[in-house]
Each structure stands twice: as structure tokens, then as C-alpha cells.
Write a structure and sequence with these properties.
Number of helices: 5
Strand content: 25-35%
Number of domains: 2
Strand order of the largest sheet: 1-2-3-10-5-8
Distance between the termini: 38 Å
Largest sheet: 6 strands, antiparallel
Shape: globular
CATH superfamily of the largest domain: Jelly Rolls
Order of helices and strands: HHHHHEEEEEEEEEE
Number of strands: 10
Helix content: 25-40%
Structural class: alpha+beta
CATH class of the largest domain: Mainly Beta
CATH topology of the largest domain: Jelly Rolls
CATH architecture of the largest domain: Sandwich
Amino acid sequence: MDKDDDLDTRIGAHIRAEREGRGWSLTDLAARAAVSRAMIHKIERGESSPTANLLGKLSGAFGLSMSSLLAGAEQRQGRLARRADQPVWTDPDTGYLRRHVSPRTDLPMDLVEVTLPPGTQVAMPASAYAFQRQLIWVLDGALVFHEGDTQHDMLAGDCLELGLPADCLFRNPHDRPCRYAVLVLRGV
């Protein structure tokens, strides 16, 4: 089993624990997240790798940020998170690569680095942005970010504070990868 498969297994187990901790059946979670019961079952058993969009829907159903949902599966402790030990998750549909950079501490924030491949886009439902505030900082390349009906054309160095929760689309229409950081403030 490679490192990504192991993370997918832990993500599935954490989703199951979140669901069971709330006393929800698979059917309850499927209805709240607008995701098929069969897909949730496959993810919980580690038979399928969830997409970024699906994780956004599940985290919204739980009332968590996607970072919080994934952090529960990433199991790191301490104040120093070395690059080699930072969990990396790849969206099986788009190749979107998510690296959880910040160490797991009691600070009310997560720092995530994302690489969005050329010519790809990832949609996130508004529910994935509830209960949190976020900043997006483009590190390299260019990002077209749709926040509801508003489009933000962002270049390296640009930083955006997200507004009220809205359906969002991260799009890279360019011919080179876009790398950006997301700072998620929890419970603010």
C-alpha cells in the first residue's frame, strides 16, 4: 500500500467515525451531503478515493471545513511539520494536489498548499465554506477563482479573503500549474 492509499483509507475511516459519532446512518449522511449512499460506503471502506468536490459536500454536511475533515485523518502532532511528513492528497478526477503544510496544534488555523494542474477546474459547494474564514494566496502561476457570481483573476502574489459562503470554482485555464496557499481560520 503506498502513502496515498494509506491516506485514503484513513480519510474513509475518519468520515465513518464522524458519521457514527453523530449517530447518522449512511442514508442520513447521503441525504445531508447530496451524495450517493453507495459512494459514501465505498469511501468509508477505502475502496474509492474521494474527489475534492465530494469531500467539500461531506465536510459541509458535518458542519466542518474540508481542512478540518482531512486534518482528522492526517494524524500529525507537534510544532514542526517537515515537508517529507506533510500529508499529500490527490483528487483522482483532476490531479488537484493538496498538501497539509501546518502542524497539527491547537492553533485555530490550517495552512494548505494546492497545486492545480493546467486546464483543470475544481468546484466546491458553499457548504464547504461554512463556519470558517479563508485567504487564498497565489504563489506561482495564475488562478481564475469564481466566488458565486464574482470572478477573481489572480496572479502570483495576489491574496484574496473569501466572502460569505458561496459555490466556488477554482480554475486554471493556463498551460502551466497554478500553486496557491489557503489559510483556513476555524471557529472565527
